[in-house]
Amino acid sequence: RLQFDNVEVRGENLVVQSDFGVGKTDLDTRFKLNVRGTFDQPRLHGFLDVSDGTLTYTVFRRMFEVTRGRLDFDGEPGRPKLDILAETSIEAPRAGAGRQDDEFEDYAVQVAVTGRIPDYKLTLSSKPTLPEIDIQYLILLGKTKQQLADEGFGQSSLELVSADIGSLVSQ
């Protein structure tokens, strides 16, 4: 039986590029991990920090800059604690505005992921402040729910989109 007795693995400038169904990552990381236990039941202790990188949702062509990223491992490899913050800027029409350039507003949108996998918490915020449902609509469609309703989207269409937005954003 293969046994690990505190094997230390360190790295700087490790590039992590991956696809995850609705998007992809391109991250620069550093890590320090200790492996203990057996091959069948490894125990992982340490951290992985993201020093720079992007997260791109290809479905709706939205790129987020990862401004803070850390995974802390304290035993079970598949259950690290997450502390991730990603940001993007979205330009959207002002409420009730026409089609002129000065009728747009820039929203700074943040997506925070905290907690332990698989029970993590996803928090959306924006400046200027919007309700979370409007932030979801901004991320996916580039407009708030009310702006879409003002443009003639029916309530049933908005409810259908709302059901899908939550699952896409959390991936």
List the helices and strands and how they pair.
Layout lengths: L2 E17 L3 E16 L3 E16 L4 E14 L5 E13 L10 E13 L4 E7 L4 H10 L3 H6 L4 H16 L1
Antiparallel strand pairs: 1-2, 2-3, 3-4, 4-5, 5-6, 6-7
Helix pairs in contact: 1-3
Describe the protein.
This protein has 171 residues and is of the alpha+beta class. The chain has 3 helices and 7 strands, in the order E-E-E-E-E-E-E-H-H-H. Strands 1-2-3-4-5-6-7 form a 7-stranded antiparallel β-sheet, covered by helices on one side. Helix 1 packs across helix 3. The longest helix has 16 residues. It is elongated and about 65 Å long.
Characteristic terms for this protein:
single chain; 171 residues; alpha+beta; 3 helices; elongated
For the biggest β-sheet, the strand order reads 1-2-3-4-5-6-7
The SS-based structural class is: alpha+beta
Helix content: 10-25%
Question: How many strand units?
Answer: 7
Gyration radius from CA atoms, angstroms: 20 Å
